[in-house]
Each structure stands twice: as C-alpha cells, then as structure tokens.
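JOB MANIFEST
job_type = single_chain_structure
chain_count = 1
residues = 321
[input]
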Amino acid sequence: MPSRNLSDMGNRISIISLGGNAILRRGERGTIEEQFHNADSCMTEVAGMLSAGHRVVITHGNGPIVGNIVLRGECARNTIPPMPLYYSDADSEGGIGFMIQQTLYNRLMMIREVKDVVTIITQVVVEADDPAFSRPTKPIGPYYREREIEFLKKEKGWAMVRQAGGYRRVVPSPMPQRIVEKKVIQRLALEGVVVIAAGGGGVPVVETADGTLRGIDAVIDKDLTTSVLATEIGAESIIILTDVDRVYRNFGKPGEEGLGTVSLAEIKRLHAEGHFPPGSMGPKIEAAIRFLKSGGKRVVITLPELMGKALAGRAGTTIIS
C-alpha cells in the first residue's frame, strides 16, 4: 500500500502527467523531428522544476502514436506478422519514453543540473472480467470510410465507432488496479532519479491463477493509471499538462468559467453535475478525485508552458484535498 509517511519525511514526490499532444500535436504528420521538438518544448519547464529540488516522476499519453504503430503493423502484415495491441502499448511507451528521457537530459545539461533520467516499461494489472472488455470505447488509429468498416469488423474483429471525421477502431479501456513496478519507481524517485513510467497508461496485463502475468489487448487511460501510481508511491501532487490552460465549468457553453483553486468537494459536485465530459476533461477529473480521496494533497491542471506559474498559483486549476 502507499507510503504516505514519505511526504512527512520531506521526500515529496510529484508526478507530471504529459498529454499525448505533448509529443504529437493536431495537424502534424508525426515525423520524428516534430516529436522531438514537441518533447523538448515541454522539458524546459520540467527542468526548471527539477533545478528547484523537486523529486519527479513523469507519465505520458501515447495517442495518436500507438494508433500509428498499430497502423504500421497492419500495412506490413503481408511481410511481417502483426503484433498484439499490448505489444504496441509497450512499443509506444519505450519510444516516447526515450524521447522524453533524452530531451530532458539535454535540457538539464544546458542548465548544468546533473540528474539521472530513466524510462521504465511499466506493467499495469487490470481485471480480466472488467466490463470494458465487452464495451470497447477508446478510439485508436486513423479514420476509415464507411465502405471499409464491414471488412474491418468481419476480417479483423474490430469494433468501430462513427465520429465526426469518419469511423475509428475502438478498443477496451479497463480500470487500472495496481502497478507491478511501483517499488522500483518509488525507490529511484526517492534517490533523486527522474523516472519516466506508465507511459500511455502502461502495458495492460492480467494476473493468472499461478501469479504470473500475461498481456491483454487494451489501452488504459493514462490519467487513471497516473492516479493509481501516485497513490502507490506516496506522491504528494499530480500535475496534469494538457491542451487547455485550466479546467472550465460550462466549457464551450454560455456561462463558461475558468476554475482557479477549488476544493475536492467542489470538484466532485461539478463532476456529478456533468461539467466534465467523458473523453476530454472527464478522465482527468476522475483521476484527480481518486488521488485526493486516497490521501493526495494537490492536483494541478494546465498547459505545459504554464506549469511554473500554475505551481505558484498564478495560472491553471489547482484542486486541493
């Protein structure tokens, strides 16, 4: 179980959760140059936080990169055997982790801050009977035309959903239960190592009757995994970096209002009233509520470039327990 007394001893860990848009942004082709440039842009603020003495664990999203990896396998399926989705999850976690690891290391070198930075491929236990496996909802990959979907359903067994741009494959997104590598992540963070972990929500695995693990095809919500990881390693705060400057009540509607510092009770009330829709801000708020109810102190939600100001209370939304 989480070691909440660690914070009392002064060993305060913060988790920075990067959205998938931090690596690959809307409208970009997804070249390696674009991905490294975007990763580097985010690491300037992170490096500043580390130079101030914070102990940091970094998590990150993997969309739409994991969808591109799956598509790459599909395009080459007549030459190379296609890999399962959980393998693509691990593939994206390693690749994105490497980009963050290298760009952060370089940023730290520029300010003469010596820190070890490591990436840990992270397995996340889910329940085999999670209802999500019978109701896939997580869109991945490109958009398809209507005439293609019957083939994809019949030949590949894919579940498809209609969206504004066409049809997309949807996969299960089960609830994360526990982090297999939590002890080593915690130990390294307490030693001052910057740990990149649970990328893309981690690699979903199920525990078998004899205690061994096996991968299962799914994509776990990265913010929910971040919440579980933060609780299990005794983190004090989560900083969620996304594509809006703060959380909004009535977002995109009449009466839209940005939230500054709010209590757990207030954010729970707004969530129950439906202010945070699924698929956008909803999972982030749900993750924040779970973390704070489990003993966490603070969740900050903002843009990557506003992280420093948000931590000082001058930008973003801060939810406190």
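[summary]
The longest helix spans residues 85-110.
The radius of gyration is 19 Å.
exit_status = 0
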